[in-house]
Amino acid sequence: MSDSCAAPDQDAALPASVDIEKETVLTGTVVNDEGELVQGAYVRLLDGSGEFTAEVVTGEGGQFRFFAAPGKWTLRALSRYGDATGEVEASRGLNETKLAVSR
To answer: Are residues 23 and 67 in contact, defined by beta-carbon separation less than 8 angstroms?
Structure first.
């Protein structure tokens, strides 16, 4: 984990204290054009109106995770390999996605 980022290690397993029945978790990976996992990508979470909500940096495994409310969210990845945007209609539980960045 970077000293400049207060977010938890994105590659760590979901904490045992998280109740998937009650929580909404947006999780996924960032990959480049070759399908390789992208470490150090910035992933932004935008709400249904496009407003910035949160940002994390992907870990060694290219993973990211947000805890959010159920609903429509936009994920935007920014990296040295390019950018990607994806939309997620999140419900309670684990909502997984992949963002493929390119120029």
So the answer is: yes
Question: Which phi and psi (to 5°) does residue 41 adopt?
Answer: -80, 145
Q: Is the pTM of this model over 0.70?
A: yes
Cα separation, 12 vs 59, whole angstroms: 9
Q: Give me the residue spans of the domains in the chain.
A: 38-100
For residues 62 and 12, give the distance between their C-alpha atoms in angstroms, rounded to a whole number. Answer: 11
Average of per-residue pLDDT across 56-85: 96
* 36 vs 17: which has the higher pLDDT: 36
SS3 for 42-96 is EEEEECCCCCEEEEEECCCCCEEEEEECCEEEEEEEEECCEEEEEEEEECCEEEE
So what CATH class is 38-100?
mainly beta
